[in-house]
Amino acid sequence: MVSALDVVVVDDDPDGRRATLRVLARAGLSATGADSAETGWRLVREYQPRLVLLNVVLPDHSGYEVLRRIRDDPALVDVGVVMLSSVRTPEDRTDGLASGADDHIERPVASNELLARVRANLRQTDLVHRLRASEERFRSLITQQADAVLALARDGTVRFSNPAAEALFGVPAGALDGTPFGAPLPGAGETEVEIRRDDGTTLHAEMRVAESEWDGEPAWIVALRDVSARLALEEQLRRSQRLEAVGSLTAGIAHDFNNLLAVILGASEDLREFAESADVRSLAEMIGIAAARGADLTQRLLAVARRQLLIPGPVDVGALLADLEPILQRTLGGLVSVEITVDPMPWSVLVDRGGLESALLNLCSNARDAMPGGGRIRIETANVEYGSADPTRPEDLEVGPYVLLSVSDDGEGIPPENMEKLYEPFFTTKPHGEGTGLGLPMVFGFAKQSGGHLAVASEVGRGTRVTLFLPRAEPAVVEVPDAGPTVDRPRQGDLRLLVVDDDDLVRRILVRQLEHLGYRILAVGDAREALDALDANDDIALLLTDIRLGGGMDGYGLAARARERRPDLRVVFMSGLAREGLAPDEIPDDPVLGKPFRQADLAAVLASALA
Amino acid sequence: MSELILTLYVAGETPGSRRAATNLREICEREMPGEYRIEVVDVIEHPAVAERAGILVTPTLVRRLPPPTRRVIGDLSDGEQVLRQLLDEVEDDAADTAAQPTT
User: Fold this and answer.
1) A328 touches A405 (CB < 8 A)
2) Nearest chain B CA: its distance from A224 CA (Å)
3) How big is the A-B interface in CB pairs under 8 Å?
4) What pTM value is reported for the model?
5) Mean pLDDT by 10 residues, chain A (611 residues)
6) pLDDT tens digits, one per residue of A352-385
7) Which residue in B14, B71, B81 is closest to A156 by CB distance?
8) How far apart are CA B2 and CA B66, in angstroms?
9) Which of A101, A105, A125, A123 is nearest to A113 (CA)?
């Protein structure tokens, strides 16, 4: 702050005081006078002048007393003080300077010299004032800096720490000053260090170091930036990329595997039907059961990889739970009781019904396994509408209405170190051979693929709660019955089916199955042959094609081309995977048969497509 | 030259901690084979030790002997600078008295 008053003259000699004030006024300086130490002190405090001319000898106190008060008052730090005296001893010259005066003027003094000395002192106090203001700005810049900043002496001792640094280390203000930090060797760029916080936790920080000065001494200026959140995000990204890679690999393997299983399952059904002896029939049954288990396993893998065949439709969660309850009670065993609480006005959800059932069974069996001595499983639903600013909305969940479906147990709980690995496929805490490590990842995959989310809360010794976030179905849609008509061996002698699959074995077993069902068949290996066959035969009523075909055109492309020729052609797709690169809204209206399928499923889908 | 007694404080198995340990062993083995001892303390496993030593960040290298105690922060990748600190070839010779080992 620059003062409005330039000079206060404290001098009890009226003539001397008036003469001084006149000299100053003529030079254009604003000045006022005082005849005693007390009056002078009052004026100085009130006006905070740029300069005080202070007589050493005053009637009430010595001028040194006024000087001491000025120097003790932090508000007057920018006020310059010049002592006036008639010198009798050399100490008269030096005493004032030693006590903090800026200058000493001997009387008598010529008026031009007095003015020159006053001006010189004004310049000096202004300079000091500007320097202090600049330093203040600089300090406030560092103080308000978001990064933690430390100034270290060359022995590594903390000389200064800004509030961000104190917050980073979790210590009270000033607690870092004087502590030994260490020599932060200034390397090129940034160094990563871990911060030990006062509460015992650890943060990751980037450290940058500059060699500089602090309070006139050589110093290191250290900037620390908390990167814990960024590192956590990177780790999350790495994990999801890993999951994506595992997913692609799994999906590829599962696709080929499903084709093999389709052949094994189909052949075993045939074998059982035509077996001459009970022995062969029982062997055929064993093959069929093994193939069905294999199909179940690939289904799980696809669920984890988020590539299973899901056909979302509106599902009334309350009704589904009511249907499931007796099955749950039976399969979970007598030691466990199931308690279901449904929201009084439950919304429907838009998910694949079978997928949701299997997810619920999975969560319940996990809950049972967490309570070897028995206990209670609670299943609850709640309607939630998430806004964009809702703090309880999981980070990667879209804004909108959801049904929360939670399964809780009062079992062992999950130790914190295992919480992060829960979603990783093949991670299991169960003894070897008892768990596949696919249960929760599968449910997670189902939730994500359905546009929802999964959250796990657990406390060791208290229990675990797994919550599924499922997107709400548009209320206007009426639930469609999921069970298609079951048709057994219809005789469809007049209808011709065009079968397209690029896998020879699959094609052969399909032809056998379809012949048993009484259809007339034309079977080809790719889209081009299929289109030729369509052109040559006008009695083809239905196209049964694999989605993934070799030869440059897939099943979707084939169906589109075929319909250009024959708009009334019925189409049924087959898939070892299902979604095959299509977004949910691009999934065709035509039925999709997931491989491998039983002959009865095939019969039902064809009958309904031709109906 | 008297024997160097060094303690390297690290926090678990972070890349920075591993780099610091590797760099330190290289420097010592190259410049003063047989004349040093290194103790590595994991501050997560031994929080009380880190507390007593007043360790604020990791990795921190502490020269416990000969006196005065010296501290160096970072992954010790600049061998020249680390060596200057360890061998007292620094302009400011002030002792780090507050950090005298209490263990």
Assistant:
1) no
2) 11
3) 101
4) 0.50
5) 81 92 93 94 93 92 92 90 83 80 89 93 91 85 84 89 89 88 76 85 88 86 88 82 78 83 88 87 88 83 76 86 85 84 86 87 87 89 86 83 92 80 71 67 87 89 90 63 43 75 88 87 91 89 88 86 89 74 59 84 88 80
6) 888 898 889 889 988 888 888 888 999 999 998 8
7) B71
8) 7
9) A105
A 218-247 residues inside an 8 A Cβ radius of B:
218, 224
- DSSP letters spanning A120-145: HHHHHHHHHHHHHHHHHHHHHHHHH-
CB neighbours of A19 closer than 8 A, spacing ≥ 6? A111
Nearest to A438 by CA among B53, A446, A200: A446
Strand order, beta sheet including B70-73 = A183-184, B70-73, B60-65, B4-10, B36-42
Q: Which residues of A are less than 8 Å from B17 in CB distance? A: 194
Sign, CA torsion A393/A399/A401/A403 = negative
Q: What ipTM, to 2 d.p.?
A: 0.79
Q: Which residues of A145-166 are buried (b: 16+ CB within 10 A; e: fewer)?
A: eebbbbbbbbbbbbbbbbebbb
Measured between beta carbons, the chain A residues lying within 8 angstroms of B98 are 157, 178-180
Over its C-alpha atoms, chain B yields an Rg (Å, rounded) of 13
Contact B74 A185 (CB under 8 A): yes
Beta-carbon separation of A194 and B14 below 8 A: yes
Helices (H) and strands (E) in chain B, counts: 3, 5
**Structure confidence by residue, pLDDT tens digits, B30-52:** 888 888 888 888 888 888 888 88
CB of A6 closer than 8 Å to CB of A49: yes
